[in-house]
Amino acid sequence: MKGNRFRELLRRYEGNPILTTADWPYPANSVFNAGATLLRSGETLLLVRVEDRRGISHLTVARSRDGITNWRIDPQPTLRPDPEHYPEEVWGIEDPRITWIEELGCYAITYTSFSTSGPLVSLALTSDFRHFERRGVIMPPEDKDAALFPRRFDGRWALIHRPISTYPTLRANIWISFSPDLKHWGDHTVLLEARQGAWWDATKIGLSPPPIETPEGWLIIYHGVRMTPAGCLYRLGLALLDLEDPRRVIRRSDEWIFGPDAPYERVGDVADVVFPCGAILDPRTGELRLYYGAADTSIALAIGHISEILDWLLKGG
User: Of 15, 89, 173, 226, which has the most beta carbons under 10 Å away?
Assistant: First the structure.
């Protein structure tokens, strides 16, 4: 950004994009939309959506000591579609979000399975990103952009997700649902509605990374899609949920905070897209690293500070 005309909450890493197909150990069409987590070893792990040259996606792990450079990528796909046992994965698995569940002692991965009836939400658990326990479908089609909260509320797990309605017109709102056992889900409630008209987040919105716990509330970074004559335009906004009752929205930004601007975000398989599935908050420094898919082609990094983001949101953003 030029000058100091406005506050830049997320700053692009100058070495973007940080991962492309040129880094990949096997042939791929594109790498993007990676889930992210900080391992107990201190390493950053990305679970990357990889689209092969057929057009079918799978997930592959990349690791880095600093979360920015020198990525070590699994030589083969880490988690492949398994349509023989899970027919909903017939056209691939996509867009993972990772949540560490202390109570279970493992990572929960929510991802989109691309079935013949449309995209839906699936769940897998892992402790080492080598072995995975698939739990199968937890939300029917058409649904995606899902992530779990890391702890229960009044004894129940909570899931944010994004079903789509076509009545009376296309609408895609963010919902929250609850479960006693990660299998049976109910108390489905609209959490955030897509606005209408000329807004940047009109028609379609969806969760980006999993909810981030802060002293002020659960920080939600979400994407909004504006339909333009040139196509869809994906940008990011913020919301804040109550710590003890995540159905209660404390704040929601009117303005978007991050949108496609750099050439690698504006040109690619799908132009004008910034789409994060993972973020890592350093509790010592407050630094927030946001990993996002750029134009459905590569992975890029934006860096901010949690105190600046919350201050902007709470003071009128």
Answer: 89
